[in-house]
Amino acid sequence: MARDALALALLLVALPAALAAQGPAGAERLVPQPGERVAVLPFVNISGMPMDDWIGSGFAETVAVDLERVANLAAVDSGDARGLLPREVGRLLGTPWVVSGAYQRVGDRVRITARLVHVETGTISRTANVTGQLRELFTLQDRIAAAMAEDGPATVAEQTVIPPAPPAPPGIVLPERVRPARPAAAPGAAGFAPPVAAGMIDGPPPPVLPEILNRDANGRATMLAIRLSEELDLDGSLDEAVYDEFGSASGFVQQFPIEGAPATEETEVWVFYDDENVYVAARCWDSAPEDQWVADEMQRDSFQLIQNDRIVVAFDTFYDRRNGMAFMVNPIGGFFDFEISDEGNPNTDWNTVWDLRTGRFEGGWTVEMQVPFKSLRFQQGRSQLWGIQFERQVRRKNETSHLTPVPIAVGPGIFRLSAGATLAGLEVATQNRRLEVKPYAIGSSATDLRADEPFTNRGAGDAGIDAKWGVTQNLTADFTYNTDFAQVEVDEQQVNLTRFSLFFPE
After folding, report:
1. Closest-CA residue to 383 (of 198, 156, 121)
2. In the chain, helix, strand, coil percent, each to 5?
3. What is the number of H-type helices and E-type strands within the chain?
4. pLDDT value at 474 more than 50
5. What's the gap between Cα 33 and its chain centre?
6. What is the dihedral angle through the alpha carbons of 152, 155, 161, 162, rounded to the nearest 10 degrees?
7. HSE on the CB side for 247, CA within 13 Å?
8. Among the residues of 21-124, which ranges form H helices?
9. Cβ(306)–Cβ(312) under 8 Å?
10. Total-model pTM
11. Environment class of 4 (CB within 10 Å of its CB; exposed 0-12, middle 13-18, buried 19+)
12. CA separation for the pair 27, 131 (Å, rounded)
């Protein structure tokens, strides 16, 4: 229940922003006329697997041919329109219509979405969603083209207006939006390789110090973790020399409310490590005074924290692009940790050992987190390659942004680890045994002068221990001696219809 509740809560946070993008209820729907020019953009690969990039170009070519054949529309090649939004492509090429879309492959199934945009007004005239087997790819492409070229009136509910993207605030660099590269020869539908081969980076190469972030033309990023040469004072104040010595990772991109636009409030992040811990630091700029921030929750793992201003970091420690561990913090030090399985299914019962401090500066708030390596599970070996994603929410604006672009259609972006960045440069101690020990001791003293054998200050006590040992990265052994069953909720259920409270003896 807790897992579903977290996903639902995150979706509810995004819902007002998504509804705000809807166009006016009375708007008249536009439709393309025979002979009009239409630009077809390569479809975006949201699975995050480079070996699937060829599919996007194939979609564009097939849809363009079908639009000419079925609807007598003049398809225009958009291959030279790099780094532009759909409406910008249309203006550049002089076309009144643009078709854009995305696709996602899971195993041997693929889901395709597409939309037809009127360049002048920003109206989405037609949308289509199809799902099928990968071997049916050509049939699915034809169905997309038929949906884009269909005749007849459409309901107002299908119409949406895309607002223009706002200019980037000073100091924020938006990664270039570029169509996926087209390989020389498209691979066959069978025999796909794993998403990430061992030791290989799914994205651009690591940056050159002192820079710690490198982005490629498709928005993917590789971030460097920096080894600390001196102890980091965990106080929430980013005043150590290491923050000036190395650049920050920034340039967050909105998921809500304007997909792909630069975040309106700048966020800078760093990842450090030493022999025992990995550290995450963030400087969250905010143009509003502190009394306008939304931060009112301090209880650990409270779902109300999702409604606060917050920053979240997710570690994909096995670099499988599907599973990870996330750590959420708000400006007043409230925190939430959970596991992510298969890009969803959050396990909020997972509570590991970590620490954090928040602080203030003239332009916003800061946070420093400390996560012991012993609190995490990861692959064997000293050199590590992890996935990482950051999420920033500015609650008063209903704005959610990420370090790397996340499509608005996929729901809570922190779960979409396949769209996250790569974290390189980490080195861990070869001996990283995980051992948790929980001892307990209880005692009592009683006096009863009315007993058959009166006694005074009669003492009693008990003790025991629970231990958890991480034998390997995937095997945990639990030990217990003289378990404290008083901590087990096995009280008999009782119905109380009186005005007096019930008493539950230990």
Report:
1. 198
2. 20, 35, 45
3. 5, 25
4. yes
5. 40
6. -70
7. 14
8. 53-71, 86-93
9. no
10. 0.56
11. exposed
12. 30
**For residue 481, what are its two tokens?**
């001696």
pLDDT in tens, 112-134: 888 888 878 777 777 788 888 87
Nearest to 317 by CA among 227, 384, 383, 220: 384
Q: Has residue 196 got a pLDDT over 70?
A: no
314: tokens are: 């997710």
Q: Which residue has the tokens 């332009």?
A: 363
| Alpha carbon distance 61, 99 (integer Å) | 12
> What are the Cα distances from residue 500, in Å, to 238, 490, 497?
54, 22, 9
Asked if 232 and 272 touch (Cβ cutoff 8 Å), the reply is yes
> Distance (Å, rounded) from C-alpha 387 to C-alpha 251?
18
Dihedrals phi, psi of 131, to nearest 5 degrees: -135, 140
pLDDT digits (tens, 9 = 90+) for 79-104: 545 456 667 777 777 788 888 878 87
Longest dimension (CA), the chain: 106
Q: How far is CA 279 from CA 28, 401, 424, in A?
A: 53, 21, 14
- d(CA 207, CA 225) in angstroms, rounded, equals 11
Helix runs in 133-252, H state only: 137-149, 242-245
Task: Return phi, psi of residue 263, to 5°.
Answer: -60, 140
Closest CA to 370 of 281, 240, 247, 270: 281
Listed range (89-93, 206-210, 366-370) with the worst mean pLDDT: 89-93
Task: Output the six-digit token pair for 201.
Answer: 């980076």
Which residues are within 8 A (CB) of 475 and not within 5 positions of it... i.e. 6 or more apart?
A: none
